[in-house]
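Hi R.,

Here's the chain you asked about this morning:
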Amino acid sequence: MIKRIWHGWTTPDNADRYFNVLSGTVIPGIKAMSLPGFLGIEVLRRDHANEVEFATIMTFKSIDDIVAFQGPDYARSHVPDAARAVLARWEETASHYEVMTLTNPVEP
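And here is the predicted structure, written out as tokens:
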């Protein structure tokens, strides 16, 4: 399993607008693509003094599934125009991590 992690930043005034674009347009658009191996997406938000940071974590079964989504330049960010309109800046590439499972996880 692969986690595709990406960050974007908004002004505090645009933070709720950006989340609405994500939840109302971007994420439904990704889900409507019926991507092979796409398992879901999480959105994280962190407020800073002068900006708001968002992280998206998409989960795929394999890198090949991400290539099917993004093409050969699979690290390239997927930032639709509606999102670009309310973001102040964003990462041009996403990072990809293989999910490792512990055989003996630590008990809480």
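One quick note: The chain has one domain: 2-98.

Cheers,
M.
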